[in-house]
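Lab channel / #folding
Pinned by the channel admin:
"Please post every new chain as: sequence first, then the structure tokens as a reply. Keep commentary short and put observations after the output so the thread stays searchable."

First post following the new format, from NK:
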Amino acid sequence: MSLNAERSYKMKLRDVENAFKYRRIPYPKRSVELIALLAISCTFFLFMHTNKLNSRLKEMEVKLQPSEFSALGLTGNHISGHDAGKHDDINTLHGTYQYLKSTGQLGRVTPMKLNNTRYAGSDLVVFNRPTRVDSEQMLPLFRQLAAMNDINVVLNGPVRTMNRTRTEKEQLTESEWANELESGSIYMAHSNWLDFASYGYKKPIYISLVKDPIDRMITDFYKRRSWVKRAIYRRMYPGRREKPDEWYQQSFNDCVRSVNPECLFVQYSVRDYIQDFKRQSLYFCGNEADCLPFNSPHAIQVAKRRVEKEYSVVGTLEERNITLTVLEKYIPRFFNHARFLYKLHSKAIRNRNRNNRKPLIDPDVREMVRRNFTNEYEFYYFCKQRLYKQYLALQLENNLH
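Reply from TO:
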């Protein structure tokens, strides 16, 4: 091959290489648009998902009501109907959370530290329910739990009197009788806290309920004036002179404003015009004489110590979902499936416990009465804050796993 021919061949070979090296592969115009559309769509959906996660995280922090624990559609961000919306109040779920967070205590709130069930020496639940806390609403649920969890519900004990305190003999009788109940029993009674250990018996699992102190008094006032009570009185005491119709028709507002002895709540009093069981703290303080003075700071402090050390759960039906959640998680042997069963039978439970009489209490009357319940409210809020802490501990534990 001549020199010119060889040079020509190499140039052609180089041209072919360049053609392959710098070739441009054409793409259809629609394919480019499709890729761009997919990129924009992915970016949009990623933004929406991130925004949704951020909203859920914020909702978790503010409300602390995960869907798992909101099965009943009830929230815990209020004290009662009178205080709805005060989300920064320490006596609300959100307020308790913010307080624990701001004081650095949130990290120490754990179910283990707040669960006294592990200290019980027997498989017996004692539910010493105060009067007028709507505890009768728990009875249908307890019957469902008995069938589901193979437990026994006992409603009547050996001491049937409704005295404010038990005598030493009555305490011994009740503790001895309760100790003989079969394993897996729930014993319900209107009685004060009883020190089983002082009589040589194993410590049971104590639970109870509380309610707004003034709402208890209002409920009690109208219960005594109900036609059911009137019929019972006539049957028990036939022929005895009963109270006039005016007494049955009297309103709580008029009773307070007229300074009726029935609606006076005298500080530190031991004897009362009527035994209306105004001392909610008495059920937790115990049967000692020091627990009797009404609205006594000493009695309140003793009651708070009892709740802190002796009770597994003190709930309130004003916060039904939270109470059922805490009972279910802290005492699973007895209350497993409590939320599910309540939701399943909630209509029947509500119909059974419906109270059509809802008296309107004037704000000034409520405030007048509240001034005499300062320490009772301190105890009531203490119990609610402890319940909130137990609930928050569950939330925090679940979020960490």
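NK: The first helix runs from residue 3 to 21.
TO: also worth noting, The first strand starts at residue 124 and ends at 128.
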